[in-house]
Structures are given as C-alpha cells and as structure tokens.
Amino acid sequence: MSVEVWTYIIVGVTFAGYIWIGYQNRVRDTKGFYVAGQGVPAIANGAATAADWMSAASFISMAGLISAMGYDGTIYLMGWTGGYVLLTLLLAPYLRKFGKYTVPDFVGDRYYSQTARTVAAIAAIFVSFTYVAGQMRGVGIVFSRFLGLSITGGVIVGMVIVAFFAVLGGMKGITWTQVAQYSVLIVAYLVPAIALSVVLTGNPIPQLAFTFSDVVPKLHTLQTDLGLGSYLYSNRATIDVFAITLALMAGTAGLPHVIVRFYTVPNVRAARFSGGWALLFIGLLYTTAPSLAVFAKYNLISTFENQPLAEVRNLSWVQSWEKTGLLAFDDKNGDGILTMTKGDANEVKIDNDIIVLSTPEVAGLAGPVIALVAAGGLAAALSTASGLLLVISSSLSHDIYYRVLKPGAPESERLIVGRSVILGAILIAGYFGINPPGFVAEVVAFAFGLACASFFPIIILGIFDKRTNSQGAIAGMIVGLTFTAVMILMMRSVQLLGTAEPILPSFIGITAQGIGTVGMILNFVITFAVSRMTEAPPQDIQDMVESVRIPRGAGAAIVK
Fold first, then answer.
1. Dihedral, CA of residue 267, residue 270, residue 272 and residue 276, to nearest 10
2. What is the DSSP letter of 57?
3. Which pTM was predicted?
4. Which CATH number goes with the domain that contains 58?
C-alpha cells in the first residue's frame, strides 16, 4: 500500500480513538470543564501534561531546529527541559495548594484585585493565541503532505477536530484524550529514531549512538566543507544564547496551559508525583531529539548534495513535499547538479518544520512508519492546541465573564459561554495558523517570551514575597507584557507588518526569541519597586501566602 493509504488508516484509527475517548468523558459542570473534576490520577496527569507540553514545536520543529542550527539549536532543548524542572519543583505544588481553577484565578485572589485578574486573563489569552498559532501551523503541514490537502485546508480540518475535543469534553475529555495522544506521539518519535540509529551506527539506542559513534563529527565536517557553518560550536552571541534559554525556562514555568494541569489532580502530593511522571515522559522525547536531528541532517545532505537534480525530483517523497511548497530546488548555475551551501548559492530550500516528518521517507523506511510519524505529529499539535483553547475559554468565560462581569451567572450559562468562546477562539487560531509570523518553534518561542515577561515574576513573587501587592503586580504585568510584545513586533516587522527590513534587528544583541528575558527583568523590578512604594497587602493575604509555603506534608496540605 502507498504511504497515503497507510496514513489514512493510521490517522483514521487514532482519531477515532480520540473522538471516542472525548465523547466518553464529556462533562456537564464547570469543575469538570475547567479542571477535570480534580480527580485525575498522578500518572495519567503526567502523561497528559507531557502531551500538552510536547507540542508541534517539540515533535515537529525542535529536532528540525537542532538539525538546521546545530549547537545553537540546543538552546531550545535546554530552555524547555530546564523550565519544566523549574515549574515542577518550584511552583506547581504551591499553586495546587492555592486550589484555584486558572492562573488568572490565582492572580486575582492572591493580589485581591479584579483589575489584576483581568490583566492576567488578557495576558493568558495573548500568550495562548500566540502559542496555538504554531500548533495549527503544524497540523496544516502534516495534513498538507500526507493527506494531499493545502496547508489552509489542513488547518481547517485541524480546527474542526480540536473544537470537537474542547467543546464537548472540556478539561476532562482533553485530559484522557491527551493520555492516548502521548502514547501515539512517543512511539511515533522513537520508532524512526531507533531505525535510523541502527542503519547509520549499528546501535539501536539513539542516545548512545549519538554520543559514542562518529556520526556527529562526520556531519560537522560535511557542514564546514559546504560552508554551512559549524555544527559543534555556537554561531550566536553569548548574551543571546543566555537570554533565549532563560526566556524559554521562565516562560515554561509561566505557561497557563501547563500550570492548569496541576489543578486537575486531587491534592498537592499528586501534583508533585504527576510532575515527576511528566518529566520522565518528556525526557524520553527530549533525549532522543538531538540524535534524530543529527541523523536527519546527515541523511538530507547525503541525499541532496552533489546529486543530479532530475534524479532527485523523480523521488516520490520529493514530489510530494514539493507540492506543499516547503521543499524547493533552484538550479542557479544551470549545471543540473544540486549544491547545498550557505547563502545565495544554496540550491535546496528545506523548511525546518518538515525535517522530522520527512526523515522516515528520506531514510526509505516502511510506509506504516512514515504514516505513524504523521499521526504522531498530529497528536502533538492537537493535544497542545486543545489545552490552549481551554485556557482562552476559561480566561474569558470564567475569569472575566463569571468572576468580573457577572458573578451570579448560573453554571449552565457559564458552560455555554465557555464553549462559545472556544468556537470563536478556534477561528482566530486557525487564521494565525494559516498566516504565522514564523516557523512552528519560532512562533512558540514568542509565546514563551510573553509568558516569561508577564506571568513568571508575578507567580514567583506571589508565592515567595508576601509584601508584593496588587499595584505592583498590575504595573509589572503591563510593563513586561507590553515591552515584550512591542519588541517582538519591531524585530519581526517583516513578517508581522510587511516592512522591507526589521524595524529593530536586535536589542543589545538579544533577538526576538530571547527578548522576553528583558521583559521579565523589567516586570520583576517594576513589581518589586511599586509594591515597596505603596501600601502592603491586607494581613489576611499575607497570612494566606505564609500558610501556602508551610511544608506540612502532603496529608496536611490536601485541598478539596
């Protein structure tokens, strides 16, 4: 059977399973809709968190970034992994002990201010829309290649599927669907990595093959010979590497759709255990990504460099990817032989987002494996998109509509508003998926920068500094978020505003992916300074903050 037929079968079976799980776990109350009734077991929540966390950026784009950027691509690996450790150990147990539904809920109650709640809700919406654009882009790419649709058509199909999960099942349906999606995506990621590891090195364990074989030095030599730059050393300014890594770490710890997962477990002890399980599940993919990146890049160079263009274009997988516009050739010197080099002389254009998806085909693996990778990419993108849409819904319907505009709204009305908001949000997310401001991981990095600059300082100070007050929190969030958003807009003005050149190429050597670090520092400084210049929080708020930090043990810390 053809790759397309295998894809229809495997994607169809997995999607049928997701839909059945979502339907079986449909909800009828707001607690089930927003936090899955706070009854998810730790190991299941760990798998769901891993699926929520390992988005299209992790599955589709991270190995592509490492493949294209070499050493510099590891900033994404270090930032995202380190950030999850930071979240699990430093923030998650305390946030669960507060016992709220959402991050804006925490901000509103901790800072005793509806204004603070509203600002946090707006920031959550802003961050989530930026993040979900990358997921919808990933869905469009997979459907475009493997189901013969345009990227626009692929995004639309993805919109319908995500809306079904989120509207019908809320957080409960999404959680159990994500458990299944994690199983699909991790198998889909490991199978081609193991197969390539055996073919290229003879070692079936990708992590060991990457470390102890000569494939990395050989790729480095190939790259430098072709003028593609060093694969083993950084080509970025040190300050930019530091800023991007820190922005990704702090952004991870401030992401609303990840934090809310810790509200779905029964108690603080379960929050800690689910964080440990999630870290294990995430580590399986993240330790495999560098090896897959190296294997993929080595295969691509071997396939294209110094090969006859006519023969390359006769390959069926090349023809399929060319139709998407994400793979293209330009015989600039007219000699009929492909050259992969740096700059204007390069005759092969490969979008970073297709490297992982195309790797099984480049390596000549079997049709079912190729189709499984497509199903894994869709599982990664759809699981995260579902969680993000629920954050947008809860921010508008719970934090603004119910907690600010209409506190007396009955439960049935709040559910209707929440589901209606999801439908509106999916349309906006689809638009940005069709017209993204960059490739998948780059768009997602912007979301992390916005979360880093808006939420991380407010959550940290809200837990560990009882003197921080509402005036400081509001000022800090507004300054951090506004500065970061404006700087990203100026640095990416070519894509976002259609300018001929970026309005601002960088800021003190820091690029758009790392500018959230500067916004975070501004947030910390403004929040701390304004809090000290204004009245201290009420005594009951200070007592609440103090009690949340008391290490009384899991049994005494249970929140019903």
1. -160
2. I
3. 0.78
4. 1.20.1730.10
